């Protein structure tokens, strides 16, 4: 069971690395995106497996002018790919 301090620490940790990785994963440079996904993403996910959910929430967050996908649509997409 997490304490409030542990939860705050995890949130702070995730706020440090998730935006940086998302920036790398959204790079227009294909080689850069490949290197980030191959070498950088596994490191924090290996240390904090539960962070995959906040990471996916950030990835799937709609951009301005974009419609949000429902949880069912996201689940269907993940199962089919």
Verbal overview:
- The protein is mostly helical and 81 residues long.
- The chain has one domain.
- The chain is built from five helices and no strands.
- The model has no long low-confidence stretch (mean pLDDT 83).
Question: Topology of this protein?
Answer:
Blueprint: H1 4-25, H2 30-40, H3 42-47, H4 52-60, H5 71-80
Instruction: Give the mean pLDDT.
Output: 83
Q: Beta-strand percentage?
A: under 5%
* Amount of helix: over 70%
Task: List low-pLDDT spans.
Answer: none
Q: Count the beta strands.
A: 0
Q: Radius of gyration, Cα only, in angstroms? A: 14 Å
Structural class: mainly alpha
| Count of runs of 4 or more consecutive helical residues | 5
Largest sheet: none
Number of domains: 1
Order of helices and strands: HHHHH
Per the principal axes of the C-alpha atoms, what is the gross shape?
globular
How far apart are the first and last residues' alpha carbons, in Å?
33 Å
Summarize the structure.
The chain is 72% helix and 0% strand. The protein is mainly α and 81 residues long. The longest helix has 22 residues.
Please give a handful of descriptors for the protein shown.
81 residues, mainly alpha, 5 helices, 0% strand, globular
């Amino acid at each position: 069971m997490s304490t409030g301090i542990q939860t705050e620490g995890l949130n702070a940790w995730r706020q440090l690395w998730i935006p940086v990785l998302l920036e790398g994963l959204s790079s227009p440079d294909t080689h850069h995106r490949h290197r980030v996904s191959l070498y950088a993403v596994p490191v924090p996910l290996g240390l904090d497996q539960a962070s995959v959910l906040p990471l996916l929430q950030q990835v799937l967050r709609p951009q301005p002018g974009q419609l949000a996908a429902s949880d069912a649509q996201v689940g269907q997409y993940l199962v089919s790919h």
